[in-house]
Amino acid sequence: MSVWPLLLWLVRAVTTDSIVTQWPDVVDVTVGSSVTLKCSVMELYSPCSSVAWLRTFPDNTTLSKTDTSKVTMHSSSHGWTEVCSAVISSQTVKDSGMYYCVVVQGKFAHIGNGSRVIVKDPTVSPVVEVISPVSSGASVVPLQCLVTGVLQTQVEVYWIIDGQRVMGHTRWTRGENTEFVVNQLMLSAEEWQSQPACACVVEYGRETFNKTLQQPGSCSVCRVVRLLYVALASISALLTCVIIVTKVALWIRNKQK
């Protein structure tokens, strides 16, 4: 299985435009549904019997042959065009991922552009939490976005920093009682001190979830509360001074009598 990442890298490095065209680019289905993936191999003049379907596993960046018990292969010819398709049935959330059409010709393999399959459980939605970094005077500041309720293969996680889309590093982590997706983005101390608008965005099929990171001192409500606190403290101090002055005046008057 470990040979496939190298094969994929070599194919991508040699050609920028894949001669194996694949569609759809993205498909969003519910648990139990079937998915039909297609690829055109007309430039290779190869039969569909030379086609294999692979999927990626992002946790260890490997490719594996799709479970043949769940895949039904079809082919159709239209003139010079040979279209090969695979129907993947009885989808579960664990079937989510990137699927590649691979055409094998002797010692060579041609890989398609990939189709992303997202299988969703209608009773589950991702929960997004953003961890506010602790200011420690370091040269870099880590921003972390935690997504629970879904698998890494079901979502795409990224950041919007001052209106610009920025990709962090995404990984799937297993905790003591839960599993979650973590996306981490490193900002320089100067970028963080400029108080940029930061939001973590999670794309879950056709749905989008986001969570905004509030920096210390950047929250307008927090500023109002702080001003009210200062005002109340000032009034309290003034009242204390008035009480003390009044008591001193009464004490002096009583002394004079």
Provide an overview of this structure.
The chain has helices at residues 3-14, 189-193, 220-256; strands spanning 21-23, 26-30, 35-40, 51-57, 62-65, 71-78, 81-88, 97-105, 108-111, 115-120, 127-131, 140-148, 156-161, 164-166, 169-174, 179-188, 198-204, 207-213. By secondary structure, it is of the alpha+beta class. Strands 2, 4, 5, 8, 9 and 10 form a six-stranded mixed β-sheet that branches. It has a four-stranded antiparallel β-sheet with strand order 1-3-7-6, with no helix packed on it.
Number of helices: 3
SSE order: HEEEEEEEEEEEEEEEEHEEH
What is the CA-based Rg, rounded?
30 Å
Question: Which shape, going by the Cα principal axes?
Answer: elongated
Helix content: 10-25%
Q: Give the termini distance in whole angstroms.
A: 103 Å
Q: Into which percentage range does the β-strand content fall?
A: 35-45%
As residue ranges, the low-confidence spans are 1-16
Main sheet attributes: strand count, strand direction, barrel closure: 6 strands, mixed
The pLDDT mean sits at: 78
Summarize the structure.
This protein is an alpha+beta fold and 257 residues long. Helices cover 21% and strands 44% of the residues.
Question: In terms of topology, how is this protein built?
Answer:
Blueprint (H helix, E strand, L loop, with lengths): L2 H12 L6 E3 L2 E5 L4 E6 L10 E7 L4 E4 L5 E8 L2 E8 L8 E9 L2 E4 L3 E6 L6 E5 L8 E9 L7 E6 L2 E3 L2 E6 L4 E10 H5 L4 E7 L2 E7 L6 H37 L1
Parallel strand pairs: 2-10
Antiparallel strand pairs: 1-3, 3-7, 4-5, 4-8, 6-7, 8-9, 8-10, 11-12, 12-16, 13-14, 13-17, 15-16, 17-18
